[in-house]
């Protein structure tokens, strides 16, 4: 069970420590984390309601938060009765409504305000108009340290999201065959995710399929969407489930057609690289040490050029969260941090291999939340 009251108290304590009088969080992972106000699956095109810029929570350091919602948002998506909510009529004045909220929260004069990093420019400009002379800072300075370290309830939630992801993967494996297209694969994965209990895909389900006869080369995914996957070609999955706001990120590779000895060697290197990375997710190590430990396996195996990206990223209520497992990151890992560990070897028009799981930092090494399906599966 997630204890939102404790989270709110911790955030307000950080606000006091940082001298922040008011924090504004629009609909976002941070608002979901702090108050349990859920997000919706995103549209490709933006949709807006009158006064949309003030949709979110106004959080003072010493008072209960107030949510402000446009009428259509409240009517269609809920009013969150566990919190005080002020609803803007369709023809209402959002500046006047927010002014009244600021008065209720005793915010006036040259206040110090923390605003969500991805809030709209319109929000920032209107706050400045309501509170001229106020100082602005980043809400991330309050929220990131809280969200970075996952407690037992969060880790349990991520583990369940991982189980949903693995169930969707297993079901997909029984339905795929050579000659399918990327569109077929994406459609099947997304269907199986929802069927297994995911709220939505945690990000756009992706495939990095490579082989001598397949034209994928990064950046042309749309062009190859309907090209049949004829053997020999490696099929690289990248997808994840969402459960109660927590995102999973998972990767595996299978092969259409019998792979050659070189592919099997590269695949085994990727699995060994991940094992080295997981072992390096040890409290006290730095993020760059974990990246280096995993990367050395692939470099020493002669495929360093094919490991094109960082080892992984923080994850939780967002798919990508700081910190990152990358060269140059001196961030010291702590127990409860969660990362993807996702080494790969990719050579367009030749082959690709990848594996990815979420791993929790521990005192003596990492603990993977998913670990099945690592034996190479071949579809002849």
Structure explained in plain terms:
By secondary structure, this protein is of the alpha+beta class. The protein has helices at 4-18, 29-35, 71-77, 94-104, 121-130, 140-148, 152-173, 182-196, 261-280, 287-300; strands spanning 22-25, 56-60, 66-70, 84-88, 112-115, 135-138, 206-207, 233-239, 242-243, 246-247, 250-256, 312-314, 321-325, 338-341, 344-347, 351-354, 357-360, 367-368, 377-379. It is globular, with a radius of gyration of 23 Å. It has 2 domains: 4-146, 3-Layer(aba) Sandwich (Creatine Amidinohydrolase, Chain A, domain 1); 149-378, Creatine Amidinohydrolase, CATH 3.90.230.10. The longest helix has 22 residues, at 152-173.
Write the layout of secondary structure elements.
Blueprint: H1 4-18, E1 22-25, H2 29-35, E2 56-60, E3 66-70, H3 71-77, E4 84-88, H4 94-104, E5 112-115, H5 121-130, E6 135-138, H6 140-148, H7 152-173, H8 182-196, E7 206-207, E8 233-239, E9 242-243, E10 246-247, E11 250-256, H9 261-280, H10 287-300, E12 312-314, E13 321-325, E14 338-341, E15 344-347, E16 351-354, E17 357-360, E18 367-368, E19 377-379
Parallel strand pairs: 1-5, 3-4, 5-6, 11-19
Antiparallel strand pairs: 1-2, 2-3, 7-8, 8-11, 9-10, 12-13, 14-17, 15-16, 17-18
């Amino acid at each position: 069970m997630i204890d939102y009251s404790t989270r709110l108290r911790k955030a307000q304590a950080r606000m006091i420590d940082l001298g922040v009088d008011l924090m504004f969080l629009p609909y976002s992972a941070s608002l979901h984390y702090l108050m349990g106000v859920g997000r919706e699956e995103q549209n490709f095109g933006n949709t807006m309601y009158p006064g949309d810029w003030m949709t979110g929570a106004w959080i003072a350091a010493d008072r209960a938060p107030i949510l402000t919602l446009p009428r259509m948002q409240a009517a269609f998506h809920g009013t969150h009765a566990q919190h005080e909510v002020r609803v803007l009529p369709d023809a209402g004045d959002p500046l006047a409504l927010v002014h009244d909220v600021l008065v209720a929260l005793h915010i006036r004069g040259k206040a110090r305000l923390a605003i969500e990093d991805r809030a709209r420019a319109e929000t920032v400009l209107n706050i400045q108009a309501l509170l001229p002379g106020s100082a602005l800072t980043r809400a991330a300075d309050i929220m990131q340290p809280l969200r970075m370290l996952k407690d037992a309830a969060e880790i349990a939630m991520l583990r369940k999201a991982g189980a949903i992801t693995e169930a969707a993967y297993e079901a997909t494996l029984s339905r795929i065959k050579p000659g399918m297209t990327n569109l077929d694969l994406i459609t099947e994965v997304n269907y199986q995710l929802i069927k297994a209990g995911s709220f939505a895909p945690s990000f756009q389900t992706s495939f990095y399929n490579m082989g001598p006869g397949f034209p994928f080369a990064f950046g042309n995914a749309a062009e190859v969407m309907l090209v049949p996957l004829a053997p020999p070609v490696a099929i690289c999955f990248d997808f994840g489930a969402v459960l109660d706001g927590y995102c999973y990120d998972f990767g595996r590779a299978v092969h259409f057609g019998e792979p050659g000895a070189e592919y099997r060697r590269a695949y085994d290197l990727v699995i060994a690289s991940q094992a080295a990375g997981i072992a390096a997710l040890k409290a006290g190590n730095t993020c760059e040490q974990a990246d280096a430990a995993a990367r050395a396996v692939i470099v020493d195996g002669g495929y360093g050029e094919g490991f094109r990206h960082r080892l992984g990223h923080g994850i939780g209520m967002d798919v990508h969260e700081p910190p990152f497992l990358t060269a140059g990151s001196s961030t010291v890992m702590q127990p409860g941090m969660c990362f993807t560990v996702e080494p790969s070897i990719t050579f367009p028009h030749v082959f690709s291999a990848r594996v990815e799981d979420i791993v929790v930092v521990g005192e003596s090494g990492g603990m993977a939340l998913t670990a099945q399906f690592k034996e190479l599966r071949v579809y002849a």
